[in-house]
Amino acid sequence: MSLSVKHLLGIRDLQRQDIELIFQTADQFKEVLQRPIKKVPTLRDTTIVNLFFENSTRTRISFELAEKRLGADTINFSASGSSVSKGETLIDTVNNILSMKVDVVVMRHSASGAPHFLSRHIQVPILNAGDGINEHPTQALLDAFSIREKLGTLEGKKVAICGDIMHSRVALSNIYCLKKLGAEVTVVGPPTLIPKHMAAALGVNVSYNIREALQWCDVANVLRIQLERQNTPLFSSLREYSLAYGVNRQLLDSLNKEILIMHPGPINRGVELDSDVADSGQSIILDQVENGVAVRMAALYLLAGKKQELV
Amino acid sequence: MKTILNGKQLAITIDRLCHQLIENHLQFENTVLIGLQPRGIYLGDRIYETLKKLLPGTAIHYGKLDITFYRDDYNKGKTLHVPSETNINFSIENKKVVLIDDVLYTGRTIRSALDAMLDFGRPASVELLALIDRRFSRQLPIQPDYTGRTIDALISQKVRVLWEQRDGKDEVILVD
After folding, report:
1. What is the pTM of this model?
2. Which domain holds residue B117?
3. Interface predicted TM-score (ipTM) of this complex, two decimals
4. Does B80 touch chain A (CB under 8 A)?
5. Sign of the CA dihedral A128, A129, A131, A137?
């Protein structure tokens, strides 16, 4: 068994059995992470570079932990303080790093498609750790893995993705991933934050009413409002957004069922998600973070061996 | 295709292996059994069940160990192995460990198993039980302590161990 792809650029390129293989492998890595020695020597001959052209806390730490727990050597690169600020091109930067015998690239970039572009020019496996507003595949995998862990399966489950759909790579990857696993998806948010033609293009339901969407779903994945990607204001104020679309205790109590609450982090507390929801028993936000390491270990394990196929 | 052990012989062999284990480990107070995934666990299950029948009322620790992440052929151009479940819910610290696998061939699986096992603790001793020992084919200095049947086979031949619950019948065969 192996993945049908040589890079993990997006969920769009994966088959359902690829996702299932990643989950099956991640189940075993999750067990490894419960052991007294949370480490296996599988990738001890592998060096991995984490190229972060954009800020990150969780994803970066999660990838680095995953790499270390697979026994790999890791090097970290961030654009600030590097020769990128002297005008070096992406391909030059990466080729210089690869000439020092690096075997796998993990990359986050603010430009959508940057890892796809790079994959046409270098001969090592690339894992996309988020590219612009396109995809964030490992986040979608860990989200779906966490739902599967709580609900047993994704098949037939209803997931509402709430908030800033337009600027969210997490939303797009989640939609691809959930649909491939047989879940139903509704995106909900203000009309200005939901791209036109989304329903037709991706086969999701679109709603502008948060209460209706929450009443419909089994799981709500609440996204962060990405002010840094909004050039012109798309809603009048954070306070108004919070009043209309914020997920709070009162709203959840008014539903006639208990739903799971997810958030990819970092949370704007009091904007899209209130603290008494984020920290409640309904929230699986910290399970998501925990599962992130196991899922990334699985993706690295399944891809790092593909180096020969690329040379 | 040649039969190495038929169903009846396999049952007798497993009984004999269990008696040999009892001979060395008596009441299993300080002994744990570990079956190796994916195929050694069928033999492990059978030995565990037989020992429970032979020693009623005795608590025997039995776990399953997957060695996929400890293999020495990752990145060597072979197909990737899909991991199976590891389930060791007891301490192996200072215990006598008996590793159980169905076929001992090159010894590389057992080498990986030793590494994997040591990440769970430092056992007092480790023994190896193999149903079939393909002698003269070892690539590492590893030998079994308990053997069901020793055979000579060509590199081109394969030993297949069939189990009732998975394959519909108990049999060990040599396939050309």
Report:
1. 0.92
2. 8-155
3. 0.86
4. yes
5. positive
